[in-house]
Amino acid sequence: MRKQKAYFVQRLKWSILLILLITAAILIDIDHTQANGDIPSGRISIQVGKNDSLWSIARRIDPDYDTNEIIWYLIHLNGLENRIVREGQILIFDYAAIR
Q1: 62, 11 in Cβ contact below 8 A?
Q2: Domain containing 94: what range?
Q3: Mean pLDDT by 10-residue block, N- to C-terminus, for the chain (99 residues)?
Q4: Do residues 1 and 24 both lie within one domain?
Q5: β-bridge partners, 53
Q6: How many folded domains does the chain comprise?
Q7: Looking at the structure, do residues 5 and 52 belong to the same domain, yes or no?
């Protein structure tokens, strides 16, 4: 009888832990969605303007997000060899990269 009770208590503890973890994951996802609710979704094209830099473009994409990370995504998504961009150059950016 004691084994059954111990087994039941153990399963109850694991069930409660699982419920708490699922609840935390849902709350984190809801908070993230609300924080990024005004960010467009999908892939965009950006034409580099006069005096633009990857830094200025990254700040326009999302001023609240880590600018260096957006620059990293721009470099990798566009196959750039360095941080130099030229006026008229077309860059792509996917907002899914920062979600």
Answers
A1: no
A2: 43-98
A3: 79 81 63 48 86 94 91 92 92 82
A4: yes
A5: none
A6: 2
A7: no
Examine the domain organization and report whether 49 and 85 are in the same domain: yes
* β-pairing verdict for 90-94 and 43-47: antiparallel
3-state secondary structure the chain: CHHHHHHHHHHHHHHHHHHHHHHHHHHHHHHHHHHCCCCCCCEEEEECCCCCCHHHHHHHHCCCCCHHHHHHHHHHHCCCCCCCCCCCCEEEEEHHHHC
d(C-alpha 68, C-alpha 58), whole Å:
8
Q: What was the pLDDT predicted at 35?
A: 45
pLDDT of amino acid 58: 94
